[in-house]
Fold these 3 entries.
Entry 1:
Amino acid sequence: AQVVESGGGLVQPGGSLRLSCAASGFAFKYYDMSWHRQPLGKERELVASISNNGGSTNYADSVKGRFTISRDNAKTTVYLQMNSLKPEDTAVYYCNTDPITNIWGQGTQVTVSS
């Protein structure tokens, strides 16, 4: 089982990015999924989660109203649309199942800076 995150980059404050997480090797459609982030020197934190059929989502208070998690079970991919980005969103972003399992990928770096 593995996940591969992509879509990160350097963006100015107020900008947008869409992260993707391609999953393989497990029955994706039966798993709730989650996005996490880890700023440099800080603990990893849960950003958002989504139920296996996409019908239920949850967000950290710090991203509520700005980020949207979604999934495409046919493509075994989960997405994180990030709008109105702030410098404090700078971090390495990871996806995983929910609850987490030992399938951490390499993550994708998001840097919000002018």
Note: The chain is about 0% helix and 50% strand.
Entry 2:
Amino acid sequence: QVQLVESGGGLVQAGGSLRLSCLASGRTFSSYVMGWFRQAPGKEREFVGCINWSGSSKYYADNVKGRFTISRDNAKNTVYLQMNSLKPEDTADYYCAADRRGPYQIATYALESGYNYWGQGTQVTVSS
């Protein structure tokens, strides 16, 4: 069992930056692929990015590529989402998730159906 707790959300102006963190419980964190997803008001949840066990492989949605960076610190059981050049359309609840399947090609983990565990989310609001 893995419990995930996100933090770091808040209100930021367009063009600004935020770093989200996701702290995982348990001693098997390093065996999970970690993903970030988001859900804007009135919209379906969408994939943001994911990172493999070692951090050597990452995959991003096209609409955040070049602006967002995922990293992880297995010693701290934490995955991060650094968000730069934020836009109002980035406003959403952000969720981290853990997937223990694989190993598969990193793009496979863009599908939320494979994730076993989810955090409760943290809200990000980008003002124009």
Note: The two ends are 40 Å apart (CA to CA).
Entry 3:
Amino acid sequence: QVQLVQSGGGLVQPGGSLRLSCAASGFRLDYYAIGWFRQAPGKEREGISCISRIDGATYYAASVKGRFTISRDNAKNTGYLQMNSLNAEDTAVYYCAAGEALYCDSDYSPSTADFQTWGQGTQVTVSS
């Protein structure tokens, strides 16, 4: 079964950190770019980061640049999103996704239509 299984969300205080994981099963994640999206209540799903499959080129939305770091471990068939200096505006459901034939760099803005396989989503709540 082709799927992405997410873990690592939860409740964190402002200024804290979390690491989200996205483990692939049923397919090789290293054949795909990995994207991270988030959706806050009443808002559209926003693409916040992406990492290419070939050279590890990355994209970050302005809202997370300098605070979040995307990475991948192809040996573990897993992608990660390290989130630091979290604030209340980061509260959302976070989704990982795998996209074929994508190159993620600073000129690319992730679109949900570009990704074929999605994780189940994980809640991140930033609150004191």
Note: The longest strand covers residues 18-25.
